[in-house]
Each structure stands twice: as C-alpha cells, then as structure tokens.
Amino acid sequence: MTSQPKHSRGVSPAGVSPGGADFRGGLPAGSTTPVPANTESRTFVHDSSDVPDHLQVTDIHKSFGGTEVLKGVDLDVAQGRTTAIVGPSGSGKTTLLRLIAGFSAPDSGRIALGGTEVAGPSKWMPAHKRSVGYVAQDGALFPHLSVGANIAFGLPLRGKTAALRVGELLEMVSMDRSYAKRRPHQLSGGQQQRVALARALARQPELMLLDEPFSALDAGLRVATRRAVSQTLEQAGVTTILVTHDQAEALSFADQVAVMRDGKLAQIGSPFVVYTRPTDRATAEFLGDAVILEAWMEGSLALCSLGGIPVRRPPVQGKVHLMLRPEQIRISSGGPIRGRVVDTDYFGPETTVRIQLEPILVDAEHPRDPHQPVGGEVINIRHWNAMLARPGTELSLKVVGEGVVFPWQD
What we know:
Elements: E1 53-64, E2 67-78, E3 82-86, H1 93-101, E4 108-113, E5 116-120, E6 123-124, E7 132-135, H2 147-152, H3 159-172, H4 189-201, E8 207-211, H5 219-236, E9 239-244, H6 247-253, E10 256-261, E11 264-269, H7 271-276, H8 281-287, E12 291-298, E13 301-304, E14 307-310, E15 318-324, E16 329-331, E17 337-346, E18 351-357, E19 378-383, E20 394-399, E21 404-407
Parallel strand pairs: 3-9, 3-10, 7-8, 8-9
Antiparallel strand pairs: 1-2, 1-4, 4-5, 5-6, 10-11, 12-13, 12-15, 13-14, 15-21, 16-20, 17-18, 17-20, 18-19
Helix pairs in contact: 3-4, 4-5
C-alpha cells in the first residue's frame, strides 16, 4: 500500500559553511576516517505509483507473557514519505515501532527495509545493522556531554571534520552552530528534541522512527517543534514513522495515517480520508469529535433529525448510525433545522455549542412513519462567534457535505 503525498517532499539539506563549533573535551573517541556531509540534492517522485515502498511490514505478531500485543499487522511506507501510527495507550503502536527498529524480534511475520528482509522466520537483523534513526519521547540526550558531543556520538569523525558536520546538522534543525558548546540542561524542551533529531540524522539513516517525541512539551512549543522537525525530515527526504496518541498531531504531521486499535491497524489512508471517511464508529470517535445520529438509509440519503444527508456509497440500507463532524453543521439564518442552545464551551478562536434539536411533531391525522426520526437529540457543533450562541438561543442550522454511515448496533 502506497500513500498519497500530503505535500511535495524536498531537496537538499542545508549547505556546509566554513568554520564550526569547537567541542573538544566532550567528543567521544572514534575513527579518524572522514565521512563527507551529504550535500547533494535529492528529488523525489511525487506520483505514488512510481514511488517504491521503503518499509514493508507483513503479518506481524508479537506476544508478551501469553498476551498477544500485535495481531497480524500489515503496513507499507513509501520512500521519502511520512506515516503516523496513532492509537490509544496499550494499542501496540510502540511495540510495532520497536520491532521495526530492531530492538526486539517478532514472533512471526516479516519486516523489510529498502527491499532487504531484516526480520522473518529465519532471519533477524539487530538494530545497529539497520539504517534506522530513533528519537525517543524524552530525547535521551547524554547529560554529561555537550550538544556537539551528543550529536557526534557514534560518528566516525573527530576534530574539525566532526565540528563541521555537527554545525551542518544543527542548521538542519534550525539551531545556531553556537549551541554545540552548550549542555542539554541549558536547552528548552523543544531544543532538546531538535538536538535528539540532529543526533539521529547524523548517520544519515534511511528510516527515521519518532516515538511520541513531542508529548512532553507544552502546547505552543509542541506545535512549533513538530513543524521544525517535519520540515527538517522533509528537506532531508528521510522516510519517517511517527508514533503518537495525539490525533491532531498525526493528521497534521503525516502523509499517511495508520489507526491502531487492540493490536491491529483499523484503517490506513491519507489524513483527509481517515478523518472524513472512517471505516467504523470507533475510528471516527477516536480521530476527533463526532456527531452520531440514528438514521434510516434509503438509497444514497440518510434520513435523520437533520434531514436527508447524502452518503457516498453507503455500505448498508435500513437502520444505521450516521456520522458527521461538528464543523459540518452550520448556524444559518433560515436554515431548515431548528434547535436551542443548551450550553457552550469557549476555546478562544472557536466555541463548542451544544444544541438540542427540535423534536419532530406528529398528530393523529399524520402518524409518524416508523422510519422517521423522532428528533430531540443533543449535538455538538463548532462556531466562531461565542456571543451568537448563548444558552437558550433558538437557532437555525444547515448541514454541509456528506455523512458516513455505519451498520446499526444496539
């Protein structure tokens, strides 16, 4: 399975300029054989049909103490693309990442990197022999070493050659070369994560694995650091896998999103597809706020308290659950749907508005069709004007776009 790109992936990393930080005294010993910095421009084909899969995970199983954690996982990641594996705690996402890294072996199944099998029934390649970079949640920097020594750790370089390479890597993660002389405790959390990324990029890995690297940062810093890391990896053209439990992070960071639940991948697709067309109710509710209504499917229309909602290729007819996203329901003067504001939650740029829909009235002369919804549900919508949606206000609503239906479950 090959993902569609979210945006164009880039060309050359930052160039090397003369000079460089001097971090003698903090640099671990290593070989004197110089390795030239990778400054050549690399361009990637953006048509997914022409981009080979760099990572192939096939029917992976893994158990711990009799508990099956991974239950037949299949995942393909195209060369130079980014995939986010998102799921709740205990779903198996970090276990899968560690198997890809080579920190442990699967019980069964196969893993191939760049067409080479690294784990299988009769083969297992340890982590240090795989061209893989790994950034942990806390960065895992060595506190007794300088930033420069942390980045250069494991490089077959010393002296000025190493300093030049470290300076280039710092620039790649949008940090000044002077930071090479600092210690980790002198950096902010976001800077520490960028140094950890620079260290992982130092050996020019073909695959980068990110294990919830932004979760310990505060909200504002998390967004800025995530953007900087994404841009760095995009420019370097490194195939990347991010593991996270943050749905917004997964949707904004990756070209492909894989939703993991109970040891399996429930859905794999572009961020737009998994958010707007989830395969089941659990995935829909996990990826974001969802309005779930009882509905009756007739042809391509789901009949519910909000009217007849168009549905693309409905999987079933008859009684169903209809899913809409809150942003699809708009406050509109003269809209066909009526409701009353019950409560609001103010979040600055937008307000979540809880609205009780009007019940659908019937009388003896016009009895209700047994398939007709009764109305009266309370739904959540989002609106930018908090003053317009005060409790008790009567509003008119309309629905934009298509809905998604799931088979009915009591």
